[in-house]
Amino acid sequence: MSGSKDCGGHHKSPRKKFRRVITCILIFLLIILITILLIWAILHPSKPNFTLLDTTVYAFNATTVNFLTSNFQITVRSQNPNDDIGIYYDRLDVYATYRDQEITLRTRFPPTYQGHNEVNIWSPIIYGTMVPISPEYSVALGAEQMAGSVFLVIKIDGRLRWKVGTFITGSKWGK
Q: What stretches pass through the bilayer (predicted)?
């Protein structure tokens, strides 16, 4: 009889070790993903609400050669409707358009943080000097001015991040 007994199971193959490591990594990543999805579903962040409160027109002059000079002061209210989530406004640009054509330069709001259920109010001046507009828009603008009202759209574009506790998300663009 031989003194050593070998059952052949002491030398595990590298392939089995590799499978176990990969399986553990995948299970770990799945747990993290499920945790993130649960947190997102529970907190369910909502976009901030923007309201145009007031507009003061200092200048609005269309020339016959298809140029527009305008100067407005607007008052904008921003409300964070989230109960547990803050919002970082990294960049917010406000401007006016007429029939989807920008008629003012973009004015940037200062970067700011808005806590949960908080309200911010800004009053920037937006303006455009000798902004070229298309000939057909120039005719329509003249007709609207003669009628006594001009339909403009105030737009706010920007980049924001959500803050939940100490966790801050990546950038998100909004319009």
A: 21-43
